[in-house]
Amino acid sequence: MWKTRIDSCFSGAAAASALLSLAAPAAQAASITTTFQVTATVLASCGVTATDLNFGNYTPGAGSDVTANTTLNVTCTNGTDYTIALDGGSIAHDPSARAMSAGGSDMLNYGLYADASFTTVWGDGGGATATVSGTGNGAAQPTTIYGRIPAGQYVPATTYTDQITVEVTY
Predict the structure, then answer these.
(1) Is 147 exposed, middle or buried (0-12, 13-18, 19+ CB in 10 A)?
(2) Is residue 39 part of a domain?
């Protein structure tokens, strides 16, 4: 008898539980969404590297100019316009009349040009000198500087130097 009563209690409890689960609404998952922006500002920037310009040996009595060239590499952000200017040097301070010195008063004149025909003096953009312009593409862009020492300069035999400052404006 006890066994029948216990069985009927459990069966009644199971039936009640089944009825409750049918009558109560099922728990539902909820969600909500939003959006956000992702931004970055790319700044215009440029970098420049230069290699030395070495004319080598100069013989005044040879009767011909000595020429040489060097390369500047300008790296600017893609689409950034830039202009390259060269100052007049540390000796003459004049882009249209550059000179090298051995430390004394003797000077060896030379010129820097934007073209291989030595007609466009490369300078700071003032006076009769020109600058060279370009547009960055994100990679190093080589630009050639052409140099010439005019023949017939009779100066003492020694090493002559000058220092040029390159300015890239963007």
Answers:
(1) buried
(2) no
Residues 6+ apart with CB under 8 A from 51: 70, 71
Exposed e or buried b per residue across 11-20, where buried means at least 16 C-beta atoms within 10 angstroms of its C-beta: eeeeeeeeee
Convert the pLDDT of each residue in 140-155 to its tens digit: 999 999 999 999 999 9
Structural domain of residue 54, as residue ranges?
46-169
The number of beta carbons lying within 10 Å of the beta carbon of residue 70 is 16
In one-letter notation, the amino acid at residue 168 is V
Q: What CATH number is associated with residue 54?
A: 2.60.40.1090
Number of domains in the chain: 1
**pTM reported for the whole predicted model:** 0.79
Asked if residue 122 is part of any domain, the answer here is: yes
Contacts of 73 (CB under 8 A, 6+ apart): 48, 49, 50, 140, 141, 142, 143
Q: Residue 157 domain-assigned?
A: yes
